[in-house]
Amino acid sequence: MHRPIFKAASILLAAALSAGAITAALGPSSREVSASAEQTPVKLDLSGIKQSIKAGGYEAYLSNHQQAAPSTEDVVIEGASFSKADGMQASVLQDYQGEQGKSILTADSGSVTWEFDVKQAGLYNIRLKMFTEPGKDSDIERELAIDGDVPFSEAKSLVFNRVWKNEKPSFDRDESGNDLTPGQVEEHVWQEVTLKDSTGAYEDPFMFYFSAGKHRLSLTSIKEPMVIRQITLSAPSGLPSYEEAASGYERQGLKPATGVFMKVQAEEALYKSSPSLLPYNDRSNPAVEPFHVSKLRNNAMGGYGWRLPGQWIEWEVDVPQDGLYQIAIKNRQNYLRGLSVLRSIYIDGKLPFKEMQTVPFPYGSAWQMKVVGPGGGEPYLFHLTPGKHRIRMEVTLGDIAPILRSVESNILELNAMYRKIISYTGTVPDAFRDYNLEQRIPEMTKVFRDSSEQLEAIAKAIEGPSGQSDDRTSIIHTVAYQLKDMADKPETVPSRVETFKTNVGALSSWMLTVNEQPLALDYLIVSSPGSKLPAAQAGTWKKLTAGVDAFFASFYENYDDISSDGDTGGKNSVSVWVTSARDQAQVIKRLVEDQFTPQTGIQVNLKLVASDVILPSTVAGKGPDIALQIGNDLPVNYASRSALQDLSAFPDFGEVKERFQASALVPYEYNGSYYALPEQQTFPMLFYRKDILEDELHLKVPQTWEDVYEMLPVLQKHNLQFGLPQKPLDSLGNEVSNANIATMPPNPAFAMFLYQNQGRFYKDGGKAVDLDSETGIKEFKQWTDFYVNYKIPISVDFANRFRTGEMPIGIVDYTMYNKLSVFAPEIKGLWAFAPVPGTPGTDGKLHREVGSSGSATVMFKGAANKDAAWEFMKWWTGKETQIAYGRQMEIRMGASARYPTANKEALAQLPWPTQDLRKLQDQMQWVQGIPEVPGGYLTGRNIDNAFRRVVVQGEDPRETMDNYVRAMNEEITLKRKEFNLPTIETRDLP
Fold first, then answer.
1. 500-522: b or e for each residue (b if 16 or more CB lie within 10 Å)?
2. What whole-number distance in Å separates Cα of residue 473 and Cα of residue 462?
């Protein structure tokens, strides 16, 4: 019986040994990788790229003040000497957090203004001495104005990083002996920050022009509080070159240190700029420190998470003697093929010389040992005195920055030209019509030709002397060729308008990837110059033995088990199934282990399962006690079959339900009882492009549907579109997937019109639908008229059309905010959202009701320990847990994963900009829940069928809805009879 298993294992072992030997023999050594990497061009030739000056941008601002000289003296403004505070209660603090003197605490909204005198006209840097006050754990953001005006668009979003560190100096391990990802805590410290671009588009700090005389400087809070001690207008200071620094070493008589070798593990970083910069396990080579063949060890730092401009990591070294040192960094840059990623290296908060502003780390598939230096084997030397010093590495774009600025400028210009073209041709031009675009848009061919030449120059700069096109530049060449060809043959533009839009969208996606500069680190070495350094890659024998050990370990190690080994089957335990993804499950597991179990003594058996597993497991009697992240349609479906526990039977349910909007509980009510607690709640908001709507078309954000009707002809005159929602969105801004084609939720747009006019989906306690009422028919017609009379598109990719400006305004779930923040960085600051247009009511109020969707947590009736399960549900949906979960998800996955919690107080504590949060809360007051009833699973599908018959086939709205109401009522009656529930009399049905 065991012989076949042994034989199979032997064959697999032989294969592993052979593969390991071949890989070891043929794989590149670190020296070879380093040698090939050195061939990568480091300095890009930007001479062929024309400067692209964006109207209202920083380059245009500098161009207007190019005659101004840099100042030579500083102007110091005391924080507490502010002249006025608008929209906030600014507090003056004395000797705050160890800083002598008076400081000012600025709130997360409102503005503060200082008045001061400038004696010498010129260009100044602005430096703030500030303290990161506790807030919502997100970066601090401010808008700066001088004499009442924002000097350039980039000054509308000035970001100040918080400082983070590992919660403990060493890594905790789970029951299996694997390292756990460390928790991150903020270190509240005083910082001196010079204002610069947070996106990395400009390498040097911003320079601001001040004339001689009196001035006002204002900082408007966008999000998070901040303490300000001083604001300094400082003279821009140049950095010495390394040659000048080395000459200074000679003049001071400094000598190289001798016999010093200090290794700092990268994962043991002292501080970092973001809690998402986490140590992780790397198994690519046994030489990574520390290494284990079967256990997970946090042995690398950075990686793909350390990629965005401005992110930094800092380490501390204790230097034993005064002298000159070299710095070596074991790194792996296998992300950007053919390109170097760049880092700025600071010593004790300062760049030691100019070359440290852009230190390149070339591409290589394996780990490399890089001695920081000019190349050719000679290292740069750094002067360090005895004692503790800090080495900081910060992501920078270097020569890529002007390239990205140029590409972004071209994208915005080409999207604007696309909107001009479709204003004549529409999005689907007539192939047999000559639109004479070169006469109607005289500048079109020039824009195409100029952009083509600029893009070709950019591709040439990236490719370097080889001139070899590859995946880095293929899309640039494609767009450049198309633009040149359309400039030469303008008559072909209408037939190519769709591919033109697609290619410009692909260029935007290219910009996203090039903007990222990921780099993994194993350790840093500060040593005497010329010290022998360890090999970056393990030798052949070490790799072979590690491979064999890992092979045998794979028979008994289970890396997919996320539950603890404690007493998970005892009386004081609950089983919880998670239906989302592994990232979410790991965060929940950490919160349970850190908070819930220590506080309550209740053990949790956590499992990650597919959502379609829950029903058959429950039927088989092998289901969980609790299921998380369940769709809105399931609780009533299960409750009607007596599968769920009635939560309203618990004595403190009334207190618990106050955590949520009443609307969030509506889908979980059945026969007067509640069978779920809300986790997420999403609802529509009105998204709009400020640059198009307000600046180009001179339109105001619509407040009522009459405003929308007045706006539509203006939009359609330019062949632009207004968007209505078709499906709810998930927390990432993507459409909610629906595995069952027969069912779908009611359309969000129809729900909005229905609720704004006091309509309802069901009547008589869910015994029948109420969509054949006068209000139901009227609102169904209002909804379909948008498509029949105004020809708005039925199904669209809102994010892409919003990005190009083709759909500059539309209604969609507010989680689209998350997607746009990451998906479309080129339109940052050009869009906003607001409450949806409303309908004036007889009560004199403007009704902005919308329907909602979301997810919930449920307790199954077969739960062995219902009290323990209820304790878990209360903890999970509580304010503190929801805040912690939401922040951890954003830490792990970025702004695209901002959590749409249903807990009212927790939502207010998530890192939303203050003004945006107020808009969300304004809309939330009007949110209505959509009830779920037995047999109601076909309501949404039948509404959609009726909609398509009216819009696509031209049928009468009233007759069509009447027919489908009959079908809906028949299904509801059928199900109610099945569950022995009272039904509406047949004679009362239509």
1. bbebbbebbebbeebbbbbbbbb
2. 7
CB 762, CB 931: distance < 8 Å: yes
Instruction: Round to whole Å and give the CA distance between 350 and 236.
Output: 14
Tokens for 471? Answer: 């995946």
Three-state secondary structure call for residue 570? coil
Which ranges of 765-815 would DSSP assign to H, the alpha helix? 774-788, 798-804
In this structure, the dihedral spanned by the alpha carbons of residues 405, 407, 408 and 411, taken in order and rounded to 10 degrees, is 160
Query: What amino acid is encoded at 391 in this protein?
Result: I
Nearest-10 crossing angle of helices 474-488, 497-514: 150
Residue 368 has pLDDT above 50, yes or no: yes
Interatomic CA distance for residues 171 and 169, integer angstroms: 7
Helix, strand, or coil here: 961?
helix
Q: Is 348 left (phi over 0), alpha (psi -120 to 50) or beta?
A: left
Distance of CA 755 to the CA centre of its chain: 32
Residues across the chain: 990
Query: Taking 50 as the threshold, does the pLDDT of residue 784 lie above it?
Result: yes
3-state DSSP call for residue 735? strand
pLDDT, tens digit (0-9, with 9 covering 90-100), for 22-59:
444 334 433 333 333 333 445 677 777 777 778 888 99
SS (H, E, C) 489-532: CHHHCHHHHHHHHHHHHHHHHHHHHHCCCCEEEEEEEEECCCCC
Cβ contacts of residue 819 below 8 Å, gap of 6+?
A: 732, 733, 734, 799, 896
For 202, the token pair is 């400009």
Question: Rounded to an integer, what distance in angstroms lies between the CA atom of residue 463 and that of residue 429?
Answer: 37
**What tokens were used for 323?**
């002298």
Cβ–Cβ under 8 Å, residues 476 and 455: yes
Q: pLDDT-derived band of residue 13, with 50, 70 and 90 as boundaries?
A: very low
Rounded-to-integer distance, Cα 404 and Cα 458, Å? 9
- Per-residue pLDDT at 132 exceeds 90: yes
Beta strands in 147-181 (DSSP E): 158-160, 164-166
Q: For residue 477, which phi and psi values (nearest 5 degrees)?
A: -65, -40
For residue 738, the model assigns a pLDDT of: 65
